[in-house]
Each structure stands twice: as structure tokens, then as C-alpha cells.
Specification:
Thioredoxin-like_sf, oxidoreductase, alpha+beta, about 160 residues, 4 strands, 4 helices, four-stranded mixed sheet, Glutaredoxin, Glutathione_peroxidase, about 25% helix
């Protein structure tokens, strides 16, 4: 089963339909509005703008498991992302990324190691997973990895579908 087979709700209701991203590179990021790393939304949006036409999308996954830093309703989250950071990339409904209620999307992601060899639980907001066009996890990046860092951009460019 690939990431694209997982069911998850969209932030504004209904299914987020991950199958629509099959054949694209997807950067899955657990996001939060009240975190010291929240300014990463700007870099994520720039990645979206830079690579969208080449078969790429960011997928923001709100999560409130880290010191309650995503407390808002779906409507509040959507408004914040749009007005504060101009976010155009898709956002899912708020989910748990760790623990007994870990969403199936994250069950399929957390086994991938980052550059330091970390696997398992998400450490904080803005941990990033790059999913290849075939649905396999191509890379994992620590929360502190800036979206536009050389490491992240190089991995995206390597993972983009052939044009």
C-alpha cells in the first residue's frame, strides 16, 4: 500500500483524496500555527510556487500534539494559513502523528530514517517527508530543516517526475 492509498480528510471537509497526487512528488509536513517554526510556511509556499508546474506539491497536515501549538478549528487554521502566509498548497484535517491514534498516513511514513538515522515518532512540528511519484518515501527531514535548504531542494529536484 502506498501513501496515495491512505484516506484522510481535507481541511475544509470531504476527502483530501491523496490518490490525486500519484505521479507527483509530495512534501508531507505536520504543521502548526503557534510554533517557533511556523515561519517555515513561507518557505513551503515558495517551494509550492517553484515546483508545482513540475509535478510537485506540499501537503500540510495540521497537528496539535506538540504543546498544543495548533489549537484552532479547521476554519481558523485555513484562515491563518491563507492570510498570514498566503498558503495555496493543500491542507488536511488536523490529525495525530504519534501515539495510539497516529493517523494511517503517518503510520506509513515514520519508518523512514532521516539523515541522522532517526526513525519512529515525529519529534516536533514541521517534520518533513518527501514522497516519490510512486508513493514510496524518498526522504525524511528534521523539523529544523528549512524548506528551501540545499538538502531539501536537492531531494525534491531528484524526486520530481520525469518530464
Amino acid at each position: 500500500m502506498s501513501v496515495f492509498d491512505v484516506e484522510i480528510d481535507g481541511l475544509r471537509g470531504g476527502s483530501a483524496d491523496l490518490a490525486q497526487y500519484q505521479g507527483k512528488a509530495v512534501l508531507v509536513v505536520n504543521v502548526a500555527s503557534k510554533c517557533g517554526l511556523t515561519p517555515q510556511y513561507s518557505g513551503l509556499e515558495r517551494l509550492q510556487e517553484r515546483f508545482a508546474e513540475r509535478g510537485f506539491t506540499v501537503l500540510g497536515v495540521p497537528c496539535n500534539q506538540f504543546m498544543g501549538q495548533e489549537p484552532g478549528t479547521h476554519e481558523v487554521i485555513a484562515e491563518f494559513c491563507s492570510t498570514t502566509y498566503g498558503v495555496t498548497f493543500p491542507l488536511t484535517a488536523k490529525v495525530d502523528v504519534n501515539g495510539d491514534d497516529r493517523h494511517p498516513l503517518y503510520q506509513g511514513l515514520v519508518g523512514t530514517a532521516d539523515a541522522e538515522g532517526h526513525t519512529g515518532d515525529i519529534r516536533w512540528n514541521f517534520e518533513k517527508f518527501l514522497v516519490a511519484p510512486d508513493g514510496t518515501v524518498a526522504a525524511r527531514f528534521a523539523p529544523q530543516a528549512e524548506p528551501e535548504s540545499d538538502e531539501v531542494v536537492a531531494a525534491i529536484e531528484k524526486t520530481l517526475p520525469a518530464s
